[in-house]
Amino acid sequence: MSMNTPTLATSCAALTPEGAQARLGRPGAGLPSSISLLICALGGEGGGVLTDWLIDTARHAGYAAQATSIPGVAQRTGATTYYIEVFPTATAQLGGKRPVFSLSPVPGALDAIVSSELLETSRQIANGMATADRTRVLTNTARTLTTAERMVPGDGRLDPAPLMALVQANSQSHHFLDMQAMAQQAGTVVSAVMLGAVAGSGLFPFQRADYEAVVGAGGSSASKASLRGFALAYDAVQSQCAQAQQLEQLLSLGEHKTFTRKAESAVFSQNFPANTRDILALGHARVLDYQNAAYAELYQTRMQDVLAADQQSDPAGKLNFATTQETARWLALWMAFDDIVRVADLKSRSSRLSRVRQEVKAQEHDLLKVFEHFKPGVPEIAGMLPEPVAKRLLAWDRQRVARGLTPWAVPLKIGTHTVFGMLALRTLAACKSLRTMGSRYAQEQALIEQWLSGIQQACHRSAPLGLEIARCGQLIKGYGSTNERGKEHLLHVVQPLAQLPDAQAAADAIAQARKAALADDSGKLLDGVLRQHGAAPRPIKEQPIRWMRRPPATATHTRT
């Protein structure tokens, strides 16, 4: 979590219930102004429920409030906004007077924004809703990918760093929370977490008990879950405010202290640069979970070799050891390749069942049936068998296809809510100890070593060339034919282009070829780039001719 600590402490103090009442309104009016809040959510996340909770809380606490909504696109995940104003003086103290509220937010005149999605937060800031001298921003750090991000064959996700920097630059104070994780932990929806963040900030002159009385009304299991989510966010924001106040006090006394962040894993604390340890720790944890400690040790050994080559090519660290970071990312994903054992393991974990129950909003006593659909073919089965047996099985399947038949596969429907179904998946998941004896494991390791060797050899020529070959690990993705096509593209990108005489020209050519391969799964753009740089295009692959039987003609009957 990141926050603007000097201003955050001041803002937290000013927005306590007592401080909210003391806020001045229009210049020269001498009257308190309404406290304004813009709620940004996506369709289906409960933005309307959050608005109702806030209005009911205001009424419960004895304050006048008004809310309006702008539904936006009438579909799930479409942008929705809700605008709330609360008069900071209790209704009983107004002497029969009634405040006048606005119907819509005014850019630059908002006291706070709470948002369930980081990109949506940035969009509202780009619209001028937040100002650096007034607006507090409480935002979720989790992302809901846009259509444009999902359409990119590779990693099309936007970098969250510029989005968070935009929030920091255009807010008086800000709180970054992983609201999605809090909601999952509490077994509730994100709207309850957003309410807790608003309450913890002290924006409105309500007590915590006022919020909890509204949210917990009825005492149902859903209400209890909402209270848990509310408490998590409330305590998190309160903790940030307390930390900010302490830091401000230290800074005011001139006691400048250095706060260091502990490494995610002690495995890489000594032998690797500081800016590479986080990604290395994540990769190490993934590989360890995938196989065993020996496999994780292999990951570490491979990364030590890559780091040595990276340091040799860039001793001053001008590229911030980018080659090591990129290799660590894609190597962990490649070493943890998806096979039938991995799929069975992930689908049979208790966390998956909990996530499914949350997604379908199943109550505590609801009966939930979950069916997993599998269709393993010959390549998946052969990958777990020794090389001689796998070759014979694959040859048999190729002969079937050559005769015009469809590839052999077994469609399966397994109910993980049953003892037999869960036992079947856990038995298959327990076979990961046999993975290292399978033919696919040997093939994957050979290709990985070929890629890593290419990185190290390229680093001896130039640091940018090594970095571009490391980035080619992005081509390995997906499952089945998609994965095989990615490995084929990797070999055609690295092998011919890395041998160009000029190292910088080779780096540029590889970068261009990688982007072409990610943009076009068919490989036509990649072939064009290869020809452009004097390399041979991909060879034409044989495709079997499948003969289809003509359906029998329908007999026609005529009356005589």
- Tally of helical runs: 23
Residue-averaged pLDDT: 82
Helix content: 40-55%
Q: Characterize the overall form.
A: globular
Total number of strands: 8
Pick out the low-confidence regions.
Answer: 1-29, 251-265
| Biggest sheet descriptor | 6 strands, mixed
Could you name the CATH class of the domain at 5-91 and 100-252? Alpha Beta
How large, in whole angstroms, is the Cα Rg? 29 Å
**Architecture of the domain at 5-91 and 100-252 in CATH?**
3-Layer(aba) Sandwich
Q: What share of residues are in beta strands? A: 5-15%
Distance from first to last alpha carbon: 87 Å
- Strand order, main sheet: write it out: 2-3-1-4-5-6
* Annotated CATH topology of the domain at 5-91 and 100-252: Pyruvate-ferredoxin Oxidoreductase, domain 3
Find the CATH superfamily of the domain at 5-91 and 100-252. Answer: Pyruvate-ferredoxin oxidoreductase, PFOR, domain III
- Find the structural class using helix and strand composition: alpha/beta
